[in-house]
Amino acid sequence: MYLLYLSNWRDVTLQPVLLWHFWSLALEQQYYLVWPLVVWITPPKRLKYLCAAMIFADPIARWVASFYTLAPSVLFRGTIFHLTPVAIGSFLAAVTTRQFPPIAFLRAKWLQSWGQYSYGAYVWHPIVLAATVRCIGSTAPSWQSMSISLLVGMPATYVAARLSWSFVESPMSQAKERVTAWRSKRCSAAAGPTPVLSESSSIDFRGQHLAPERVDVSI
């Protein structure tokens, strides 16, 4: 379920507690599997309107579906009923700063830097916080234990995210780029060298030499 990013379609109570939050990652992957095709067939000027329509249509669809006997895993974590968060991200990507000035803060360098580690932080934060609570020695939901867990757990989560980026995510991204470059070179080698045409002649599709054309560029 986790390797195929389908955990959001399964009852969360049947899954390990520390992996409950993986349902949202599964939803994102399913969304991004279809979204490039939507972007490709939608005119650029209309893309932001499509995103806005999805943002408002999603809660309406969830409200209508609540009158039917749907499983909670479908109604609250199903991809088709939980598009608002990812649609907001798509809307922000589709508009420009001039069209929507509030998104100017997204260009902040510290926010872009944090974006590199946000995935790892989301993956590791329940595990780190659970380990922090265990080290404190108290699982009671008191304000003191919660405050200590947050003060210790948040910096620890950041460290875990940095380590995950340095030793897992970044090396995998670099390996993917190397594989892509290797495949491109292999395809280019299989296609053969690109013919170079001289200024004095050209070649038609039958391989015959043609006389150069004279083009009048005078005005």
Question: How do you describe this structure in short?
Answer:
With 219 residues, the protein is an all-alpha fold.
Explain the layout of strands and helices.
Elements: H1 22-41, H2 44-65, H3 72-77, H4 84-94, H5 109-136, H6 143-191, E1 202-203, E2 209-210
Antiparallel strand pairs: 1-2
Helix pairs in contact: 2-4, 5-6
Describe this structure in words.
- This protein has six helices and two strands, in the order H-H-H-H-H-H-E-E.
- The protein is globular and about 65 Å long.
- The model is unreliable at 197-215 (pLDDT under 50).
- Helix 2 packs antiparallel against helix 4 and helix 5 crosses helix 6.
- It starts with 21 loop residues before the first helix and ends in a 9-residue tail after the last strand.
- The protein is an all-alpha fold and 219 residues long.
